Amino acid sequence: MNQEQNNKDMNTAISWYPGHMEKARRQMQESLKAVDMIIEVRDARMPLASANPLLQKMTAAKPRLIILAKSDLADPAATEKWIQYFQNEETACISADLLHDASFRKKAIQASLELTSASREKMKAKGMRPRAARAMAAGIPNVGKSTLINRISGRNSAKAADKPGVTRSLLWIHADPTLDIMDTPGVLWPKFEDQKTAIMLAAAGTIKDTLLDTKVIAETAIHIIRDLYQDVLEKEYGAAGNETDMQILELSAIKRNLKREGGEADIERASMQFLLELRRGRLGRFTLEMPHA
Ligand SMILES: Nc1nc2c(ncn2[C@@H]2O[C@H](COP(=O)(O)OP(=O)(O)OP(=O)(O)O)[C@@H](O)[C@H]2O)c(=O)[nH]1
Ligand SMILES: [Mg+2]
Question: What is the mean pLDDT of residues 41-48?
Answer without folding.
Answer: 98
